[in-house]
Amino acid sequence: MTTSRQLEWVRAPQQARSQETLERLLDAAEAVLAEKSVESASVAEIAKRAGSSVGAFYARFHDKEGLLNYLFQRFDEQAEATARAALEPPRWEGVPLRQALEAMLRFMVSVLHEKRGLIAAMISRMPSTPALGLLGERLLSRVSALVVELVRTRGATVRHPDSERAVYTAVWLVFGALELRAVASMHATPRLSDQEAASDLAEMCVRYLGIADATPKATAAAKRPPTRPRTKTRSAPTVRHPTEIL
Fold it and tell me: Given Cys at both, which of 37, 69, 107, 112 links 7, Cβ 3.0 to 4.6 Å?
């Protein structure tokens, strides 16, 4: 994979010093959640990990739940920005769609594994925080729209009779499967390797959607300017002398 196709998690640029302090608190909270449950994570530990104080923490958040809600919102924004960058059609120009999907899924497996503590915290808070469900639904819808645009831009076809609904279903299944895998891996080693999981999910999506990528020949033919048909040059008929016929 070329450098231009390398995928990475998108973070917002740093702003003023107060924003930097906020980002340190959020990063510290995410690091603590990677090591212990949300119930076990304390404000004092988060503040200490951020190189800040408990007083500075409460100057920004009413309580730990306030920090978590801000953290979940940041994850949603970064996830959407990352999806937009990963699904840009020019990034995958010349790469078969099946191969591009697998590369993106390998990246997604890696990211969700890294953020599995945060994802586990989000799942545990969903029953008491309906807004998290709305964030998840919005993210699924926007990622689905990006996938549809990528397929359309490439000139690929989706044989499923309801392509947009099918893409949403595929994205929903992939997100659900990989999030569950990431959280479960905190307690047990996954049966499938990261490569196997990405490859199998990519194959599942291609077969379920009935994706037929535009062939290079067809794409080249579509871009090639029309040529004028060649006219065959006829040679002048040979005139034979009457005595030759006899």
Answer: 107
C-beta of residue 25 within 8 angstroms of C-beta of residue 52: yes
Distance CA 37, CA 25 (A): 17
Cβ–Cβ under 8 Å, residues 158 and 211:
yes
DSSP letter, residue 157: E
Q: What is the pLDDT of residues 32-56, one digit of tens each?
A: 999 999 999 999 999 999 999 999 8
Answering whether pTM is above 0.85, one says: no
Helix 163-184, helix 130-153: angle, nearest 10: 120
Helix or strand (DSSP H, E) at 244: helix 242-245
**118 within 8 A of 34, measured Cβ to Cβ:** yes
Q: Which residue has the tokens 């469900």?
A: 133
Measured distance CA(61)–CA(42) in Å, rounded: 13
What SS3 class is residue 156?
coil
How far is residue 75 from each of residues 40, 68, 81, 171, measured CA to CA in Å? 21, 10, 10, 18
Number of other CB atoms surrounding residue 241 within 10 Å:
7
Burial 24-53 (b: 16+ CB within 10 A, else e): bbbbbbbbbbeeeebeebebebbbebbebe
Q: How is residue 36 annotated by DSSP?
A: S
* Cβ atoms 7, 85 nearer than 8 A: yes
R_g of the chain computed on alpha carbons: 28
